[in-house]
Specification:
The chain is built from 16 helices and eleven strands. Strands 5-8-9 form a three-stranded antiparallel sheet, covered by helices on one side. A hairpin with a 4-residue loop joins β6 and β7. α15 crosses α16. The longest helix is centred in the N-terminal third of the chain and has 26 residues. The radius of gyration is 21 Å and the shape is globular. It starts with a helix and ends in a 9-residue tail after the last helix. Bound molecules: (2R)-2,3-dihydroxypropanoic acid (DGY).
Length: 469
């Protein structure tokens, strides 16, 4: 049995071990990578999640993490999903693959797509946690213009219809790469239409399978399609007006947009604290528009919020249940009636209430695969969003409050019984506790979320008896 302080120390040690110091164009950056085993660069939504945990144990490092991230912003406002570390070769695709040199206007190498836009939420969280006014002023001098440019970029290019929902153009942008939500869209890309050079490149250079059990990763066919999409975007010279129109994968993703809703609320809150009321009003209005649009994605027949396939002129709801269907809670988009349905689904043992909830795909789904990446395993990050979503309703709904506390306790238990893994086997399937961790180990995000949940559990008394193996 280990106490609160020991757990904090263990989590902090993971974050320290995963810190890399790099110098680009004479400037020094400290970046926390997701894992030394494979993810050796900086990822947008990982990094934002990491900073929110880290601020509880090392405030300076948390602020630096976000500043290192925005150093990779493009001149047009895009914040890419990967900021590459020079001299790290473990990850595929490598930086040169993207052909994005020139977009940042300096020597930092990046990908060309984005991630769920968690950054403003993290920036706001850090400023709320810190009492160091000078640090916050210096941070916001860089962060606020950068956040506004990023949000303006997303709104301009990803919501050309002005409907309140942004379009993501790559499964990697959704953060839930091989989710069954995307199966039908991806299958539209015939494997026979993918150039042989891409297939060869993936076969020769894809590295995750070399370091890892292939049963737990996206399939080869997924990867051919992922890289093919990148090729299409390169051919369009990263012109997002064209990419959004022409990409065979284009979707109004409810997870991405729930984060977008909350990120606009966070940006508006930051701006109004610092006296920029007019700008704050604009982002507040975007947040409201997105909240309403998310509510409207509810489909009565399937009892869920639905992503919308908008590729090449389509407009088709995707009624495939995954844990993303709970994300509109995070955006405050659920009506009382929807909330009751979601609470019921969350507590259903043949759907989402497993030994370690919340599985990324419900266990009664034809697509459920307990081992494979976003097709079954439980992820700390999505649990965190669901917890925060439930807490949004806690004051007016006792059941939501109880389920939030239960999920905090179960998530803490999952991590402390098994270690800091990327994701976890959700089932009580005979595998012993302590052996249910999957993906890559010593995973930064998981360590950071443990810190945040320990913090929350202090407030809510949700903490179980925890021990770390
Ligand atoms: C990966 O490589 O697995 C990521 O999800 C892409 O960013």
């Amino acid at each position: 049995m280990q106490d609160y302080q020991t757990l904090l120390n263990e989590a902090e040690a993971v974050l320290r071990q995963n810190t890399i110091v790099v110098t680009v164009d004479g400037k020094r950056y400290e970046r926390i990578i997701p894992s030394r085993d494979y993810y050796v660069h900086q990822w947008l939504w990982d990094s934002a999640g990491i900073a929110m945990g880290l601020v509880h144990v090392n405030e300076e490092a948390a602020f630096n993490e976000l500043l290192a991230l925005v150093a990779g912003q493009w001149k047009n406002g895009l914040i890419p999903h990967i900021i590459y570390n020079p001299a790290e070769a473990r990850y595929y695709p490598p930086s040169h693959h993207w052909k994005t040199a020139g977009f940042t206007g300096h020597g930092i190498k990046t990908s060309g797509i984005t991630d769920p836009p968690l950054l403003a939420i993290a920036a706001h969280y850090l400023c709320n946690q810190s009492a160091d006014e000078q640090r916050k002023q210096e941070f916001l001098k860089i962060m606020l213009p950068s956040l506004m440019a990023y949000h303006d970029h997303l709104k301009q290019y990803r919501d050309p219809e002005e409907c309140g929902l942004l379009t993501v153009v790559h499964p990697w942008e959704s953060g839930t790469d091989d989710s069954p939500r995307w199966d039908a869209l991806l299958k539209r890309i015939e494997l026979s239409s993918i150039p042989a050079s891409i297939i060869e490149d993936v076969d020769r250079n894809r590295k995750d399978m070399r370091f890892h059990n292939s049963e737990e990763r996206p399939t080869e066919e997924d990867y051919y399609r992922y890289i093919y999409l990148v090729e299409i975007f390169k051919d369009l010279a990263w012109d997002y007006r064209k990419i959004v129109q022409q990409s065979p994968f284009a979707v109004k993703d409810i997870l991405f947009n729930s984060v977008w809703q909350r990120a606009n609320e966070a940006l508006a809150a930051l701006l109004s604290i610092y006296g920029m009321q007019e700008q704050a009003g604009k982002y507040r209005q975007w947040a409201e528009q997105t909240r309403q649009a998310l509510t409207n994605t509810w489909d009565q027949a399937s009892r869920q919020y639905c992503d919308i396939d908008v590729a090449q002129g389509n407009h088709r709801p995707i009624a495939v249940p995954t844990n993303a269907l709970f994300l509109p809670l995070y955006a405050g988009a659920a009506t009382d009636q929807h909330l009751d349905v979601l609470l019921q689904r969350l507590s259903q043992p043949d759907e989402f209430s497993t030994a370690y909830p919340v599985p990324s795909t419900p266990i009664n789904s034809q697509y459920f695969d307990k081992d494979r990446y976003w097709r079954g395993p439980t992820w700390p990050i999505t649990n965190f969003f669901i917890i925060e979503g439930l807490r949004r309703y806690a004051s007016k709904n006792k059941n939501a409050a109880q389920q939030a506390n239960l999920l905090i306790a179960r998530t803490l238990q999952m991590i402390t019984e098994n270690g800091f893994w990327e994701y976890f086997d959700p089932l009580d399937d005979g595998t012993k506790a302590g052996e249910k961790g999957m993906g890559f180990g010593s995973f930064s995000w998981t360590a950071a979320i443990l810190i945040q949940l320990l913090n929350l559990s202090e407030d809510t008394n949700a903490s179980p008896h925890i021990s770390l193996h």
